Amino acid sequence: MPTRLRAALLNRPLTPAEETAILPILPPARRARLLKMQSAEKRREPLCAYTLLLSLVNDFCGWQTLPEIALTPSGKPYFPQHPTVHFNLSHTGGAVLAGISDRPIGVDIQRVRPVDKGMLERYAPSGTEEEFFRNWVRWEAQGKRTGEGIITRLHAADALQDSSFYYPLETFPGYAAGVACETTPESLVLWTLDDPGSVLEWES
């Protein structure tokens, strides 16, 4: 299976009807956590991330529902009944990213925003938030691919230089995104909530 990616710009709130339609998609434990959240705004990103994942596995695996999702000891999600189908999710304020592959994969998307001066000096030689988040999504995606997490990547001696198995992605203005995988991604599809053929229209 080639590596395939989908990203969505969440350009408006979800309607109550959309939330109701999406909630059954989520793994039970994740759904229970979201239902405890009082803020619909905070629920929006994870709801849409799992909807993107379902659209990917429906189109490329033929699955009508998400199979059981488990976590490795380090917290990386996987399909225990389908070990050859790898996936990863990421969400940030206003956007989500999902990917599937037949090899381990990690994805990350971040909204570019103000960063502490000390963090900029340490992790962005040019001193810009854009560079900081370009680096950050690379570390995050690489850590998610291997399951070691971003803390390990931040402390790697070659953190600023290492780009192994990494591909930067052009998604939406004001966001940085990337994927870490062993094969060149075959496709990246971009949606917004109101575009024809968007992930939520697909779900309906």
String of helices and strands: EHHHEEEEEHHHEEEH
Number of helices: 7
* Amino-to-carboxy terminus distance: 26 Å
Q: Over the alpha carbons, how many angstroms does the gyration radius reach?
A: 17 Å
Sheet with most strands: strand arrangement: 4-5-1-9
Shape: globular
Q: Main β-sheet, in a few words?
A: 4 strands, mixed
Task: Count the beta strands.
Answer: 9
Helix content: 25-40%
Tell me the fraction of residues in β-strands, as a range. Answer: 15-25%
Ranges with pLDDT <50 over ≥5 residues? 199-204
Helix-strand makeup class: alpha+beta
Average of per-residue pLDDT values: 87
What's the SSE blueprint?
Elements: E1 4-9, H1 16-22, H2 28-35, H3 40-61, E2 70-71, E3 77-78, E4 86-92, E5 95-101, E6 105-111, H4 117-123, H5 129-146, H6 150-154, E7 166-169, E8 175-181, E9 187-192, H7 199-203
Parallel strand pairs: 1-9
Antiparallel strand pairs: 1-5, 2-3, 4-5, 6-8, 7-8
